[in-house]
Amino acid sequence: MRDWLGLTLAVPPALGEVASALLFEAGAQGIWEDQPDRAGRLVFRAGFPLGLESRLMAELPAGLVVACESFSEPLDSVALSMDIKPGEDYSETWKKDLKPFPVGPRLWICPSWWTEPLKPGPKAKILKIDPGPAFGSGRHPSTFLCLRLLGDLVDQIAPARVLDVGSGSGVLSLAAAILFPAAQIEGLDSDPDTLEVAAANLKANQLADRASFSGRALSELEPGYGLILANLTLGTLTELAPEIRRLLSPTGLAVVSGLLADQTQALTETCAALGLALQRHVGLEEWSALQLAPASPESSGAGSGELPRELVEGPLM
Hints:
This protein is of the alpha/beta class.
């Protein structure tokens, strides 16, 4: 087996979810949470291919500085180190911590390697996911919130076309394909490695005739999507909001996530200026997701105010 780069990141509990997201976004091919250290900090261990040392030491500290500022945590409360590990298959180590879990009564997320029997409810469907080096096991609160909103929409809408912007492992696209059997799903991602992971998950769930993944730009697409999903970051969502509005059908819905709770007002105001009204705001830990729809003519310009934040329970461990 090849040597690999091991990274250890210790953070205050408030930064736990942000830290895991930063590691996934940096390209970790396995992440597992160790026991807290003596200072009570959460300890994450991640595996990366060799050769990424310089990029990681440039990008991760910058992201951690922003996270510390957002949560009013001192910079010296974070510790980051890395070293070269011999031969252990880091791409398998992290799997021991991933187990099947329900997302409401409609959907179960199950690791592709899971062999033990499951007992989902009578209405639940099972989605097999192997996140690989892509972000999207379904457990991160930002992804989980999108999945919860999707499940809640099953009896409310019947979209013919669904778009997943920044599809990652494909978990949201494939969940949409399972929950909305009459819809055609298109997932977009700029990372070729991530597209390969999504294609493998597509095949594993036998949904090749229902969904597709590509690196196309939003500007290449034609309007008329009944549902648009985007689990990104505030900056990216703000940048893409005009295109999301253009592509959404007059009766469509957009579900956006990847937002910290204190970032939702800024995005809500951006969307309201584009004619997208806030319909629902759900939260888990420090993360939030929003459900948006084209504003009706009589309510044009409205919808920039905050709705009550509905707290949901996270995935069962």
